[in-house]
Write a structure and sequence with these properties.
Distance between the termini: 18 Å
Helix content: 55-70%
Structural class: mainly alpha
Number of strands: 0
Shape: globular
Number of domains: 1
Length: about 200
């Protein structure tokens, strides 16, 4: 009873802080870096809202449709910019994963009438349903993708975090620190993996 609700609070807090830092990153860097920070801020705040314990913040019935429209638009935007920057392919996958989870978690979902309750029970602090929701193959593919992404991001973070002040520029403040940007992406990857596990 207590564990799932605590997991929801932790995910909400981590994703909220990540989204807030991405807003800070939007104030510096190149146009492409600011565009990436905007996309990651939307993802961070969206994941924080979806992870909020429903026993405390009960989502309205139309809330899941808002997620679908918001992240469906984000997916189209990422697809457009992916022509020039391959990192936007990750944003595309993340946005589509959010649309998928919103559809599965929506009340009365035809594909997961039991599973949606199982996912939502994580946020409500109730015991999870035994029948998984969503499409198992698609959920499994997303889990594999995010597991690989987390491992890759972690290995990239180690040399960047270990670099000293003499290894690169120190000006620009918190918004341009590459290790913090990588840590935010790693955090969101872990959070997405954890949310997909509840389907």
């Amino acid at each position: 009873m207590h564990g799932p609700a605590m997991s929801g609070w932790l995910l909400m807090t981590l994703c909220g802080f990540t989204g807030a830092y991405c807003l800070l990153r939007m104030r510096s860097g190149t146009e492409e870096e600011r565009r990436t920070a905007r996309a990651e801020a939307v993802m961070g705040f969206g994941m924080a809202a979806m992870a909020a314990p429903a026993a405390v913040f009960p989502p309205p019935a139309w809330g899941w449709a808002v997620y679908v429209v918001l992240f469906g638009g984000a997916a189209l935007r990422a697809l457009w910019f992916a022509r020039r920057n391959g990192h936007h392919l990750h944003h595309l996958i993340g946005s589509l994963a959010m649309v998928y989870m919103a559809l599965v978690m929506a009340p009365g979902s035809g594909t997961a009438s039991h599973g949606a309750g199982g996912v939502q029970s994580v946020h409500r602090g109730h015991q999870m349903a035994q029948v998984p929701g969503g499409v198992p193959l698609l959920t499994g593919m997303l889990l594999v993708y995010y597991a690989a992404y987390v491992l890759r991001s972690g290995t990239r973070l180690i040399p960047v975090a270990g670099a000293g002040p003499a290894d690169g520029p120190t000006g620009g403040g918190w918004g341009v620190r590459p290790e913090l940007a990588l840590a935010c992406r790693l955090t969101m990857g872990i959070a997405m993996f954890a949310m997909l596990l509840t389907l």
